[in-house]
TrEMBL record:
The gene is uraH. Belongs to the transthyretin family. 5-hydroxyisourate hydrolase subfamily. It catalyses: 5-hydroxyisourate + H2O = 5-hydroxy-2-oxo-4-ureido-2,5-dihydro-1H-imidazole-5-carboxylate + H(+). It comes from Comamonas terrae. Its EC number is 3.5.2.17. PROSITE patterns: TRANSTHYRETIN_1, TRANSTHYRETIN_2. This is 5-hydroxyisourate hydrolase.
Amino acid sequence: MGLSTHVLDTMNGCPAAGMAVELFSTEGDKATLIKSLVLNHDGRTDAPLFDNNTLKVGTYRLTFDVAAYFKARGVQLPEPSFLNKVSLDFGVANVDQHYHVPLLVSPWSYSTYRGS
């Protein structure tokens, strides 16, 4: 079923269109960049990060450029900002299942869960 993500801007009540995201594979402390992308108008990627044929069992990291996104929206953030980049480390144990990793974020807080 693959891997997907989306981001909701809880400060403004909208999708986080234009937020930069990086996907890494991880092994211990080592992280290898797989792809960099920018979220579309719906706060999602245009295609799955991995489809069901390319997703592998392992550990991954999604890094979301939260501070740059809010600064681009005109939000006055302190220097340094409370949240800069938010990284979520997660594991994929069963490639026959869909892994959806959403992020709900404001300049001061975030939450995530495994979606469907």
